[in-house]
Amino acid sequence: MIIFSCKEDKSTKEPSKKVNPIISKIQKEVSKEIVEVNDIDKNFVLGKFNYRKDTSFVKVDNIHASKTIYLKKEAYNSFIKMYDAAKTDNINLKIISGTRNFYEQKSILERKWQKYENLSPIKRAQKILEYSSMPSTSRHHWGTDMDLNNLNNSYFDRGVGAKEYQWLKENAGKYGFHQVYTSKANGRTGYNMEKWHWSYMPLAKQYLKFYNSYITYDDITGFKGAELAEEINIIKSFVNGISKDVGETR
Question: Domains (ranges, CATH) in the chain?
Answer without folding.
Answer: 1-38 (no CATH), 42-239 (3.30.1380.10)
